[in-house]
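Lecture 7 notes: from sequence to structure.
We start with the chain below.
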Amino acid sequence: MKTIVVCAVGLLVLASCRPVAKMDAKKSAAPVRVAAAVRQAVPLELRTFGTVQALQSVEIRAQVGGPITQLHFQEGQEVQAGDLLVSIDARPMEAALKLAEANLARDRALQADAARESARQEALLKKGLAAQDAAEHAHTQAEALAATVTADESAVATAQLNLEYCSIRSPLAGRVGERRVDAGNLVKVNEQVLVTVNQIQPVEITFTLPQQELARVLAAQAQGPLEVSAFAAERPDLVNRGTLTFVDNAVDAATGTIRLKGRFENAKRTLWPGQFVSVVLRVGLDANALTIQAAAVLPGQKGPLVFVVKADQTADARFIKLIRTYEQLAIVGGGVAEGELVVVDGQQRLSLGAPVSIVKP
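Predicted structure tokens for the same chain:
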């Protein structure tokens, strides 16, 4: 009788333990978030660094000497082509112009008189009333004075040009830099930089790529214009987009790189000459790339790996062939198949064969 009671109690205990075991197994499943491996079109990009350059940069220098009478700009001011920047004392040039014009007027009068005398001597020679040498002398005098008039006209043009040089104007639209002189300073011809004007709309970005990428760039460029993106490290959200405009005609033998340039309209003026920026050159499109979320990739001793959720809700560790990354995507060449669920959050709590519980995003 005692034996029957003990067995009944044992069966009762066993029956009561089975639901508890199932509940413990469910609680031990690690919560994870997953995303499917999918095939999609992914741009092919080359990433590097570059330097912003002004599309045009002009050092303003004096073309005539003299004291500066007035500066017509403020440092950092925006100017247009033709805007007056610096005035140099024009009085010596005005006097030189008047002297040149007076010489021209005098010599024109002498030349006209010589021309009349030459014509008169020619007429007398035909009538036999003048000697041959007198006629030739009058003709020579007329030609000499005509040449003098031409020289005087050139002197007047030079004097007018020097007078114009007393008003220094901006040759381009851009931004004025730091002034190097003040009003009252005496400047000499082409000796000192007065101010620098940089064109910052548009701008250029110069960057380099390894020579191994040259063939890919040239092949892509043959298909059409290539897009270049640039952003500063401190503001990755401000992305500027431009077009590749220049590929150098030689590889730098010292560094094994090729020099390129991209042109950017810089409408928001977030690119500044001399600035160091990250550059992304798009060279094509991988139309059928197998992608997973980059957050799913973990470093392993034998290479990058991911955890895949199998049909039985357990984790399987897979080593993958990581080709490259693009933004938040990892492009893989093996290790996972299209449609498989890859763990993107919670991998740290997993091991091979561990049960998982998928958490909906």
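Points to note: The chain has three domains: 30-55+200-361, 58-89+166-195, 90-164. The mean pLDDT is 89.
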